[in-house]
Amino acid sequence: MWSPRPGPGAGPSSRSTPGIDSFAGRQLHSAQYAGPQEFVGQRVVVVGGGNTGAQVLAELSEAARTTWVTARPPTFLPDDVDGRALFMAATARRQALDAGRPDPGGVASLGDVVMVPPVREARERGVLVARPMFSRLTRTGVEWSDCTAEEADVVLWCTGFRPDLAHLAPLGRRGAAGRIPTTGTRALAEPRLYLVGYGDWTGPGSATLIGVGRTARETVADLTARLEALPSAPRRLRQRPARSAEGVRHEGGLTSPR
To answer: Which of 27, 52, 150, 238 shows the smallest number of beta carbons within 10 Å?
Structure first.
């Protein structure tokens, strides 16, 4: 059985913030964000210093009055760094850690935000100015520890996702932080279970398109080798080469070999 990361179905990671239930305006997670059109003219606080926060801010700032709030000052990658460079940094970090070498820092050493064209344009407009995280929500907005406050109609949480493994709960294999311990993508306590695309704990950069492609191919190769090693494996299976990730079909959120 494979368990591919269920993109939109992954559980939003919400921050535990004082006053979160007292805010009279609208709160939503970036998973629920469909575009700037419904926020025209509103006062929107965007929370989160990663790529999602920066990209949502860039788009919203052209339709709404925005305030950007981050837990720490965001750092921006050079304009010429793209997703492939991030994947290579994540891979180098994973390889160094596996070999017992010092941690080179991975993606975090490069920065938080990839400067895609909309974010670069927002920078030129002076939009990419972040305030520190507020200390609490009030009925009408947000308030900082120095007692300064800002009214808001909307708080938009761009705070990432946590692995949504509820469908695997009956297996009883979840460990620390709700994750299933793996070696590569294969579950340690259930060798018939593979998890693909859930983040760096299932492969370097595996939550990215480039990274998940590599881990999917490696998973297919591992599965094929294990099946071929079975004494009951048909001759045609033992003789055919390992198949790539393209030889996989998706059915109802699970993935199985053809």
So the answer is: 238
Contacts of 184 (CB under 8 A, 6+ apart): 202, 203, 215, 218, 219, 222
| 88 DSSP β-pair partners | none
Q: Report the alpha-carbon distance of residue 117 to residue 125 in Å, rounded.
A: 13
d(CA 243, CA 204): 21
Are 136 and 73 in contact by the 8 Å Cβ rule? The answer is no
Dihedral sign from CA coordinates of 37, 41, 44, 49: positive
CA–CA distance from 92 to each of 51, 83, 96 (Å)? 21, 14, 6
**Which SS3 state, helix, strand or coil, does residue 216 take?**
helix
Residue located via tokens 């929500």? 137
Tokens of 82: 């793209």
The token pair that represents 210 in the structure block: 């480039």
Lookup: tokens for 249: 């079909």
Q: Which two tokens stand for residue 159?
A: 């705070």
198-256: pLDDT as tens digits? 777 787 666 666 667 878 888 899 888 888 888 876 665 555 554 444 444 333 333 33
Collapsing DSSP to helix, strand or coil, 8 comes out as: helix
Q: pLDDT tens digits, residue range 91-128?
A: 777 677 677 888 766 656 556 788 889 999 999 999 99
For residues 164 and 31, give the distance between their C-alpha atoms in angstroms, rounded to a whole number: 13
Length of the chain: 258
Q: In this structure, are residues 138 and 23 in contact, taking their beta carbons and an 8 Å threshold?
A: yes
